Amino acid sequence: MSFIGNVLWFVFGGFWSFLGYTWGAFIMCLTVVGIPFGVQSWKIGVASLAPFGKEIKTHKNTDSPLNIVLNVIWIITAGWAIALAHLTLALGLAVTIVGIPFAFQHLKLLPLAFAPFGRRLE
Hints:
Layout: H1 2-28, H2 35-49, E1 56-58, H3 65-93, H4 100-114, E2 119-121
Antiparallel strand pairs: 1-2
Helix pairs in contact: 1-2, 3-4
């Protein structure tokens, strides 16, 4: 099921989502200050490329002061908009029976998009 879900996800939007996150990661990595945010954007891009069969896990040091500060900066600048986009897409896909598994994937990506520091992809 994961393979078929990932293929359908890739064909119907996952590739474009990956390109958007990757482009954002490239732009953010042009400055030294933006590199941590670029790495997180890349992580979200990889997660959005093929989300079926993957899980978002939290690190042991999620509550470290640095992660908290970086998550607050992320949320203020772009995290809320990205999370809102995933929520909107999940609600739109949940209307149809066929879209429900894809809605769950957007809901799975939502916490990673909202506050990515201290989370990892498995």
